[in-house]
Amino acid sequence: MKNTYILLLIFSTSLTFAQDYIPIDTAVISCSYFYDFQGDSLDRSSVASEEMTLLIGRHSSLFLATNELYRDSVLKTHSNEPFDQNYLNKITPLIQGTTVNRMCRYHIYNNTLTGNTIFTTYLNKKNLKVTEPNKITWKIEANKDSVISGYKCLKASAELWGRKFIAWFTLEIPVGYGPYKFCGLPGLIIKISDTENQHCFTINIVREIKEKQQAIYYLNENYIEISAEDYVKSLQYYFADLYNRVSSGGVVTFQDDERMARSLAKIRSRNNNIEKY
Hints:
The protein is of the alpha+beta class. Helices cover about 25% and strands about 40% of the residues. The strands form two sheets. The protein has a twelve-stranded mixed β-sheet. A two-stranded antiparallel ribbon has the order 1-13. Helix 4 (about 230-245) runs antiparallel to helix 5 (about 255-270). The longest helix has 20 residues, at about 230-245.
């Protein structure tokens, strides 16, 4: 229990103080995606998975890990409560088991009114923000179609971040959104992967929101504006620093050398971010 409180303290300190939830839109569609990604660029067996959620509003969207969306809702509900032992006792059971892979800890906002995509994350004890134009040059391939997850899809391709991506989108859901930062096609992206098949998003569930309104919130923090390239460098630094701290015994104590070696190998293998420069 003591370790749980320590982890929660670290988690909550980064997320609950001085938070400002700003409603920016109302979701009309909720999409669940499976994200399968190869953590180590040289190891085909290093595939991890995370369930992600895309909330689509009338002029904007939010993409994040499903567990992150749940934790956001819990923290927002209790955001006005004092951060004390009673808070910990209440929040701990609610967020247990909602871990998110470090490669998926971000919020991505896509706004058609401003023409920008905003990527935010907490890394190296800093709130980071990347703002980019949401314009992607797609090449839609004529006479290339397929049925994926029950949707008739058309094929498109684009070169981004040092990779080439193949997207399958459907005109049955005529919204120009998709997972991660992908957008700008005349229909919802059902599946997209790079040509090396190291990063793949596949639709799981599409749900139209009618009964209960669900706001799309922008988590307003004291962000440090950086470029996408600098974020990738910061992520690489994070894993290098974590490796050094674990190997020196400064993070956790292992029962034996074999377990430490496995942990270090896992950290070292996280070198294959979706964006590479």
